[in-house]
Write a structure and sequence with these properties.
Chain lengths: ~325, ~280
């Protein structure tokens, strides 16, 4: 499995295409946004594929209407457009009415780095997290993404899936390793510190952990791939005996998984201390490749390692 | 066209309209809340749809899969729709007494947990996109039901209305009917004085729809256009622009924006009741 070369987007849609061939109730609506296997969708399953144009608000409304009639709908666009541009439609048409529409956002964090702040996915977790009846998935690799494409017939309310165009090397070798009942995976246990990461930052967390372990710090890593509903009880049982927790996300620190964990720790007695690492609450205002922007806000592996080490030694 | 309704039936529909206005007024007075004037402008439209045999729904079986879907996109006219749904047996008439009161399922804007209400509205510009999705579903599943959405004219300020209009034309959703309650007023003013919507009929036509202008308080004209809507052969969706008067039926409310969300009290209430022939009578 390690030779997997597809990013999350392509593995997600390849998996969805297979599902759609078996289940003709599946409908994919895109807002003028493509992916490799969409051509096949368009050609072979033309009744199940809609390019609705650059009209995200209408996209959510139409998705709601289709879902009310029993269709299994996936809507797809770049993260800020499929979450923020049509936020109130998501709230009213999907969350209020508990409709099981799958909202697929491509471009987590700085994925579309050079396209600038308009195309960065930096507030989506925060926004989606505040909506009742919403489920949020943020997969860390292509395998997890491909599994998330399968329809969940028990789903109540919408599901937001935050995808990245990257997704390899894989975090998981087998699909059985991704425990959807729990919503997170402990990728390594730690006594001194747990890094709770989401999306592609899980891979960064593993690299950081390796560096810290080399400096005799006992670090565990958790992949929090289901952000909502947040499995507070089980996560707490894993981390409660550690001294420190670091959250790691390519998202504004405001309102993301750092906030999620801080909400848990705030009501616990003798809780570990927390450091939230993410993008500071400002628009980058500079251009460059993703790696450059990550370095700009100290989200690269070396900066994170240094940051944590200094925090521990202080 | 005048023969589309018999004299006797016309009298019955007019009486029903009067009953509905009285009911809405008393519901709003009872709650001290609710949009009376916006409800009054669409009374004849709602009665034509629900009592004229154009909307196939069943109060005893609200989730009947073949039913026509009606969406009150201008959700603030909810009191008028509630009274009709109760009258049609979707829920007890006595529920209306609790309109917008503590613990009631009937609020100033409709929610789809209430039998007969298809979707959550109240926020404007939602009904047509969702309606377009329902109409597309019907096409995909080869179902015969009609989707009708009632929009306000001020609601046509909302961008998604036009996104959905483009979409419905592209997908030839001739099973989708948009009725625009064109009373010319919004919550704070006269549309043409701050953001005009004219020429409304041409706009819908330019977006690829068939469009018809009717007198929205004339049962003859409404019945005629609804009959046309259910029998036409065009591949385009249909917009019915219904010219109406906001607050129709109570003189001081008519065409006065301040009555968008205001409930009469004292002397005003007495006048309103008198004009609706409601003095000392049970509703």
């Amino acid at each position: 499995m390690k030779h997997w070369v597809e990013g999350m987007r392509d593995s997600f849609f390849r998996s969805l295409l297979n599902e759609a061939k078996k289940n003709r109730d599946i409908v994919l609506i895109v807002s003028d946004t493509g992916a490799i296997c969409h051509d096949e969708f368009k050609e072979k399953l033309s009744e199940q594929y809609i390019n609705i144009g650059i009209a995200e608000q209408n996209m959510i409304g139409v998705a709601a209407g289709l879902a009310m009639s029993g269709k299994i709908v996936y809507v797809y666009a770049i993260v800020p457009f499929v979450t923020m541009r049509c936020y109130e439609q998501i709230r009213v048409d999907l969350c209020c009415m508990k409709l099981p529409v799958n909202i697929v956002g491509i471009g987590a964090g700085f994925d579309y780095s050079t396209l600038g702040a308009t195309h960065h996915g930096t507030e989506d977790i925060s926004l989606m997290r505040s909506l009742p009846n919403m489920t949020i998935y943020s997969p860390a690799d292509s395998l997890t993404a491909s599994l998330l494409a399968k329809p969940n017939h028990q789903q109540i309310g919408p599901k937001y899936i935050r995808l990245d165009r990257t997704g390899f090397p894989l975090i998981y070798n087998n699909k059985e390793d991704v425990d959807f009942s729990k919503g997170f995976s402990v990728l390594g246990k730690g006594k001194d510190l747990y890094i709770i990461a989401t999306g592609r930052m899980v891979y960064a967390a593993l690299q950081v952990a390796e560096k810290l372990v080399a400096k005799s710090i006992d670090v565990g890593v958790i992949d929090l791939f289901r952000i909502k509903p947040f499995n507070q009880e089980m996560i707490w049982n894993v981390v409660k005996k550690t001294e420190r927790i670091v959250t790691l996300e390519e998202h504004f620190i405001t309102g993301g998984i750092g906030s999620t964990i801080s909400e848990m720790l705030a009501v616990k007695k003798d809780a570990p201390v927390l450091k939230s690492i993410g993008i500071p609450n400002q628009f980058c205002g500079i251009y460059g490749e993703r790696k450059y922007l990550q370095q700009w806000c100290k989200l690269d592996v070396d900066s994170i390692t240094k940051n944590i080490k200094e925090w521990i030694e202080k | 066209m005048k023969n589309i309704i018999s004299k006797k039936d016309l009298k019955g529909f007019k009486e029903k309209a009067n009953w509905l206005r009285k009911k809405v007024l008393e519901m709003a007075v009872g709650a001290g809340a609710g949009h009376i004037a916006p409800s009054f402008s669409c009374v004849e439209i709602l009665i034509s749809l629900y009592y004229g045999g154009f909307l196939h729904v069943d109060g005893k079986n609200p989730d009947w899969s073949e039913r026509d879907r009606f969406i009150l996109s201008k959700g603030h006219a909810a009191p008028a729709l509630y009274a009709i749904l109760a009258d049609k047996g979707f829920f007890p008439l006595s529920d209306l007494d609790y309109f917008a009161k503590e613990g009631s399922h009937l609020g100033c804007h409709p929610e789809n947990s209430t039998p007969g209400i298809e979707i959550f509205t109240g926020s404007l510009g939602h009904g047509l996109p969702v309606g377009a999705g329902l109409a597309l579903s019907a096409k995909l599943d080869k179902k015969k039901y009609l989707v009708a959405a009632l929009l306000g004219d001020g609601e046509c300020h909302e961008g998604p209305v036009w996104e959905a209009a483009m979409f419905a034309a592209q997908y030839q959703l001739n099973n989708l009917l948009a009725i625009i309650d064109h009373n010319g007023l919004s919550a704070t003013g006269v549309l043409k004085n701050y953001l005009g919507v004219e020429p409304l009929k041409n706009k819908w036509e330019a977006f690829g729809w068939d469009a018809v202008l009717v007198d929205g308080h004339s049962f003859e004209e409404l019945f005629s256009v609804l009959k046309f809507a259910s029998s036409r052969s065009s591949s385009k969706p249909l917009a019915v622009i219904a010219l109406t008067t906001k607050g129709k039926g109570i003189s001081f409310m008519e065409n006065n924006p301040i009555w968008h969300y205001r409930v009469p009290k004292g002397e005003e209430l007495e006048i309103a009741r008198k004009e609706l022939n409601l003095v000392n009578k049970e509703v």
